[in-house]
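Regression test case RT-17, inverse folding.

Input:
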């Protein structure tokens, strides 16, 4: 058998090795599809990357002849992959835990708004005052519900899926330009907003942002943290109600 270095001519492998590797790649593809149907939580990416890396290794070793090439190529190749892995791992340490930073997104939906301090921060639950029916004593209607066409606090029913999908469409068309559910964007993240803002507040904010930014202590404080102000999207009351339903469902179904 010749045992020659890479640069001295082509190296021809027997056909059965190519077929074997091709078979292994097909099998791994099938496994990829199978595991994609399972949910491993934050391990999803790890499992997917492991299978993909195995396939890439097979291609590099046999189809690209790394196995029969000068060892220095293997060292460079493995080194590059190793550093890529390190970069991805450290990035993942951040991205996997981002949701944990906002404890509000984990809270259940409140029917009534929290009471705000003048700095815009909700007063912690255990410091709030409730009346006999368990409702937060509202010291100020406008502080709890904002300024706008919705003049009465209202309780809302179980989530209406039809409204949710209507609201999702409107949200993606108009609000998504500035809001994401889970991360700060041009505006604040909105998953969990139903846990600390009342339904009336959210609708008033959608229908009448200008006045709330000007007059509402909480929104004014929030505004200071953003470079842009929220603009009026000219939605009807029904459309705003649908968006509210979408935000409620986004909160309730978090972590499912
Ligand atoms: C032009 C960008 C922009 C658009 C479009 C926009 N928003 Fe906003 N939104 C903001 C900003 C910025 C804030 C923070 C307050 C401020 O600075 O005006 C905000 C604040 C809010 C708040 C208050 C959040 C809180 O914690 O009290 C809600 C609720 C909200 N937006 C919902 C919506 C919905 C629903 C839509 C779509 C109908 C929408 N926004 C469209 C930029 C936008």
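Golden output:
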């Amino acid at each position: 058998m010749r045992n020659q270095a890479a640069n001295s001519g082509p190296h021809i492998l027997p056909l059965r090795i190519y077929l074997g590797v091709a078979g292994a790649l097909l099998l791994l593809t099938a496994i990829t599809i199978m595991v994609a149907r399972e949910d491993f939580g934050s391990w999803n990416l790890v499992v997917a990357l492991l299978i993909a890396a195995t396939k890439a290794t097979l291609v590099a070793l046999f189809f690209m002849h790394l196995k029969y090439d000068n060892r220095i190529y293997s060292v460079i190749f493995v080194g590059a992959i190793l550093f890529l892995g390190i970069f991805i791992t450290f990035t993942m340490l951040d991205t996997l835990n981002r949701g944990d930073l906002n404890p509000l997104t984990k809270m259940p939906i409140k029917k009534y708004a929290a009471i705000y301090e003048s700095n815009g921060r909700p007063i912690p639950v255990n410091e709030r005052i409730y009346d006999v029916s368990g409702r937060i004593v509202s010291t100020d209607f406008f502080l709890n519900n904002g300024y706008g066409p919705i003049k009465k606090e209202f309780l809302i029913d179980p989530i209406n899926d039809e409204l949710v999908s209507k609201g999702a469409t409107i949200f993606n068309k108009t609000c998504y330009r500035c809001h994401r559910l889970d991360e700060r964007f041009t505006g604040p993240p909105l998953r969990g907003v139903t846990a600390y803002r009342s339904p009336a507040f959210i609708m008033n904010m959608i229908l009448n942002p200008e006045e709330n930014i000007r007059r509402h202590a909480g929104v004014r404080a929030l505004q200071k943290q953003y470079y842009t102000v929220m603009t009026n999207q000219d939605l009807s009351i029904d459309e705003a109600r649908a968006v509210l339903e979408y935000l409620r469902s986004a909160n309730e179904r978090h972590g499912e």
